[in-house]
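Marked as duplicate of an earlier ticket. Keeping the data here for the record.
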Amino acid sequence: MVNTFAVRGAPVPSHDGTVFDPDPLPCAVDDGWRRHDHRVIGRGAAAAAGLAALAIAAKVLGRRR
């Protein structure tokens, strides 16, 4: 599977690699976390905390009756 799908590709001419020169921008590595990702996670965490607080409040109020 690896040889068929992952290693397959066009031959590349010989080069020094990225030891002495960094990757050009189109091939640069990104950490994957962007500013909008933090906002989405923050909103999701706030929504989950709100739902948990509502569930606890409903449970407490249900016991009082």
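See parent ticket for discussion. The helical segments are 2-6, 35-64.
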